[in-house]
């Protein structure tokens, strides 16, 4: 190659251009090297936010956690059955005690009123029946008792009481309760807030009113509870 051309300005520009391109390639290689990637800060894993009003989930003793979702009258019956099976199987197959299991049943939508005591059903059975779309299978009339809390006279007799004794907790939907209370208030010339207060004071054992049943399901799962929907 002509030595004069190598010393020309064009040759020098070509050399510098190629040198710059080579340096860029080296930089790209280093940026994507395993060493460089290992040194990049790792993203923190996602964790749910914690709220003090949900701490009750962690206060239930148990090394295994289960939450049952109920949204219909039949769903409540199935949840009681499945929860009973959960206790029995853990005792028979694993030798676990009742205190080893943390179980929550969420009563929401058309199952909400089945977490109310008989006193509420006796006063407002017609409105509760309308909301739940449930009538006594024998009389075809609105029930005057909570058939799932009954101690006798039905196929469900004693099941709820037995589970409450084992430690099952009920999360009762506050949104549905307000809708039910509004229906009761309009039918009986009462104030909705007073009916909500009355119902809240007359829930079945081991129950608490929660802002919404669907919210309770979310929080329970974020606290490590397995989930099943009883249809």
How many strands appear in the DSSP assignment?
Answer: 5
| Strand and helix order | HHHHEHEHHEHHEHE
| SS element count, helices | 10
Helical content class? 40-55%
What value does the Rg take, in angstroms? 32 Å
Low-confidence stretches: 21-33
Strand content: 5-15%
User: What is the mean predicted local confidence, pLDDT?
Assistant: 88
Spatial order of the strands forming the largest sheet: 4-3-2-1-5
For the termini, the CA-CA separation is 87 Å
Q: Which secondary-structure class do the elements indicate?
A: alpha/beta
Main β-sheet: number of strands, strand sense, barrel status? 5 strands, parallel
Overall body shape? globular
What does this structure look like?
- There is one protein chain.
- The chain is built from ten helices and five strands, in the order ααααβαβααβααβαβ.
- With 231 residues, it is α/β, with parallel strands linked by helices.
- Strands 4-3-2-1-5 form a five-stranded parallel beta sheet.
- α8 (174-188) crosses α9 (192-200).
- The longest helix has 23 residues, at 9-31.
- Residues 21-33 have low confidence and may be disordered.
Summarize the structure.
With 231 residues, the protein is α/β, with parallel strands linked by helices.
List the helices and strands and how they pair.
Blueprint: H1 3-6, H2 9-31, H3 34-39, H4 56-59, E1 64-70, H5 73-94, E2 101-107, H6 118-132, H7 159-166, E3 169-173, H8 174-188, H9 192-200, E4 207-210, H10 213-222, E5 226-230
Parallel strand pairs: 1-2, 1-5, 2-3, 3-4
Helix pairs in contact: 6-8, 8-9
Descriptive terms for the model:
single chain, 231 residues, alpha/beta, five-stranded parallel beta sheet, globular
């Amino acid at each position: 190659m002509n030595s004069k051309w190598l010393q020309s300005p064009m040759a020098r520009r070509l050399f510098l251009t190629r040198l710059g391109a080579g340096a860029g390639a080296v930089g790209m290689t280093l940026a994507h090297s395993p060493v460089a990637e290992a040194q990049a800060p790792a993203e923190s894993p996602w964790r749910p936010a914690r709220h003090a009003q949900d701490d009750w989930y962690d206060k239930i003793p148990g090394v295994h956690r289960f939450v049952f979702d109920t949204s219909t009258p039949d769903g409540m019956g199935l949840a009681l059955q499945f929860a009973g099976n959960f206790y029995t199987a853990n005792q028979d197959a694993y030798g676990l005690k009742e205190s080893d299991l943390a179980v929550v049943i969420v009563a929401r939508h058309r199952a909400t009123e089945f977490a109310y005591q008989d006193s509420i059903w006796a006063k407002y059975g017609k409105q509760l029946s309308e909301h739940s779309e449930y009538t006594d299978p024998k009389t075809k009339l609105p029930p005057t008792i909570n058939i799932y809390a009954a101690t006798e006279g039905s196929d469900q007799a004693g099941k709820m009481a037995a589970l409450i004794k084992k430690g099952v907790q009920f999360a009762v939907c506050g949104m549905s309760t307000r809708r039910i209370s509004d229906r009761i208030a309009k039918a009986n010339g009462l104030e909705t807030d007073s009916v909500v207060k009355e119902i809240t004071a007359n829930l079945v054992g081991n129950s608490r009113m929660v802002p919404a049943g669907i919210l309770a399901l979310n929080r329970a799962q974020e606290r490590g509870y397995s989930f099943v929907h009883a249809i």
